[in-house]
Design goal:
This protein is mostly helical. It has four helices and no strands.
């Protein structure tokens, strides 16, 4: 009788373990894809798409005059945001430089060399960005999102 109960317990444990492994595998294989598809459905349902600036006038049924004024407002706002972004980035860079200076002051020569190498690598990645495009990763010049080549 004792052996029979142990056999059932082992069988149940193997079954549960198989279910757990199968569920984990399915989640790893399909879960990420399902999240992407859900995000795409959400974007399609949204009345304001990611490039809403381009389609907002049509969505609202703006007249030609309103569209011109809308574009002017958006251009002015973009310029103000770019200035603010550059100002903030200068402050952020100053704080980072000060922190690096303080960290360097507590390190020995070998550690300082490693820190300098690491910082050069970070700066190189910022300069060339994650896609290898010069300047695409630099926070001092934020990317221009949703704009057409003519600046709108």
């Amino acid at each position: 009788m004792k052996t029979k109960i142990q056999a059932i317990a082992v069988l149940a444990a193997v079954l549960l373990l198989g279910c757990l492994i199968g569920a984990t595998g399915s989640w790893l294989r399909y879960g990420k894809r399902m999240n992407v598809q859900a995000d795409e459905r959400r974007e399609e349902a949204s009345p304001l798409p990611k490039n809403g600036e381009q389609r907002l006038p049509e969505l609202l049924g703006m007249t030609s005059e309103q569209k011109i004024r809308f574009e002017d407002v958006m251009k002015e706002s973009r310029e103000e945001l770019d200035v603010l972004s550059r100002e903030q980035q200068l402050k952020i860079d100053a704080v980072i430089a000060e922190a690096n200076r303080k960290i360097s002051s507590i390190l020995n020569d070998e550690q300082k060399t490693k820190l300098e190498t690491s910082l050069k690598d970070v700066n190189r990645r910022r300069e060339y960005g994650s896609r290898g495009e010069r300047g695409s990763g630099s926070p001092s010049q934020p990317p221009k999102r949703g704009r057409k080549p003519d600046g709108r």
